[in-house]
Amino acid sequence: MLIAKRPQRTLARAAEVRGVGFFHGADVTMRFLPADPDTGVRFIRTDLPDRPSVAARVSQVIPTQRRTAVQDGPAVVELIEHVMAALAGLQIDNCLIEIDAPECPGCDGSSRVFVETLDAAGVVDQDRPRQTLTIERSFTVREGDAVLAAHPNATDGLTLSYHLDYGQDSPIGNQSFLLSLSPESFRSEVAASRTFLLEHEAKSLRAAGIGLRATEKDVLLFGPDGVVGNTLRFPDECARHKVLDMIGDLALLGMDLHGFVVAHRSGHHANASLVRKLLQSIEKEKEKEADPWAPPLPLRSDGTIDIQGILEILPHRYPMLLLDRVLELQAGRRVVGLKNVSFNEPFFQGHWPGRPIMPGVLIIEAMAQAAGILIASSVNRSGRAAVIASIDDVKLRRPVVPGDQLRIEIVAHKIKTTSASVTGVAKVGDALAAQAKIRFVMIDAPAA
């Protein structure tokens, strides 16, 4: 489900980082620049003719070993995961990055230098919402012994877990790390964790001409007896760095992610594969919900829907039709409806003689009918009906009596082809009469 949880953010001013590329050994200067809303993150190769650029999106990822790289024509930028992790961890959504080499500077093998630089530049909110993908079902990527899975989360936000296990003979012992991601937790628990490799792997890379300028002080190098020429910042620093890499690679989704991502021995390739699966799920959902044959809603010229239009949309009839007019409609987002409560309502005969009060359950039913209009604005209503599946957090605040005009306001949480959930309130004047959260399932039914 796609929702908007917060405003987009960019840098308050430009910032610069200088360093050496770990793989190619070139001197690198990176300039981080503010960018307009919806720009995303884009790398600009200032060392190439015409300054070609490449977006930091999974569609631009190219196969590389031990790092994440993106390419668009002549513009290739490698080792982007630590930069992307810093931007995502600090919730910086729009940024232009000028770079004069084919890879990002390695710095100390972590995101710490980037975080310090970006923090010094400052961050500002923008007047556009940031899209968030909330995971509603599980997705799994398997690559040999490696497993990466994304599940729905019990709370808002992104939680990441990594279990590192290279076997009994590895100098790197088994480690696990769990993180609830926020800018604060990223700074304190993840940003300083450094990239790592085994001593014999480093020798093989150097023999191939890779990493010639990187030293034991730049990365965590593990020999048979443990770390060589360096000290750990955290006992589980390797697992923490794997989570850092996950954050950077998941940022290639191009939106925030809410869910619980669990990894076992996975790496950059699996991370990118998961992002592709998530994007494919969004496209499939859009295809299901995009129906060119859905009949238009019977809106009047002023944007309202009268009783005749309501009868076209809802299957309810006397005495159970409890909505008289739709005053406002923002398709798929919000609806405001009206119920005129008359003494002639049939339920007043028994509820109660001498003291007529509208039953609370019928107030909730009126809210559900208004929600039905909202659902019909997003999905094809032909041959389908929204049926209440659950009602939660119900509160009845004041009696509704003959002569009252019930104003019903419904806000959508999610509307899909198979289900929907909303929050609603009913008011008499400015006084709250009732409120509830209502969940629906879609069933086959005759058209209204």
Automatic annotation (TrEMBL):
- Binding-site residues, Zn(2+): 82, 241, 245
Keywords (alphabetical) are:
Cytoplasm, Hydrolase, Lipid A biosynthesis, Lipid biosynthesis, Lipid metabolism, Lyase, Metal-binding, Zinc
Catalytic activity, EC: 4.2.1.59, 3.5.1.108
Main localisation: cytoplasm
Pathway membership, UniProt: Glycolipid biosynthesis; lipid IV(A) biosynthesis; lipid IV(A) from (3R)-3-hydroxytetradecanoyl-[acyl-carrier-protein] and UDP-N-acetyl-alpha-D-glucosamine: step 2/6
Q: One Pfam family name from the record? A: LpxC
The listed locations are: Cytoplasm
Q: Give the transmembrane ranges.
A: none
In terms of superkingdom, the source organism counts as Bacteria
Where is the catalytic site?
Answer: 268 (proton donor), 351
Q: Which reaction does it catalyse?
A: a UDP-3-O-[(3R)-3-hydroxyacyl]-N-acetyl-alpha-D-glucosamine + H2O = a UDP-3-O-[(3R)-3-hydroxyacyl]-alpha-D-glucosamine + acetate; a (3R)-hydroxyacyl-[ACP] = a (2E)-enoyl-[ACP] + H2O
Q: Which PANTHER family match?
A: UDP-3-O-ACYL-N-ACETYLGLUCOSAMINE DEACETYLASE 1, MITOCHONDRIAL-RELATED
Described by its record, this protein's role is as follows: Involved in unsaturated fatty acids biosynthesis. Catalyzes the dehydration of short chain beta-hydroxyacyl-ACPs and long chain saturated and unsaturated beta-hydroxyacyl-ACPs.
Which HAMAP family is this protein grouped with? FabZ, LpxC
Which named protein is this? Multifunctional fusion protein
Give the organism, scientific name: Paludisphaera borealis
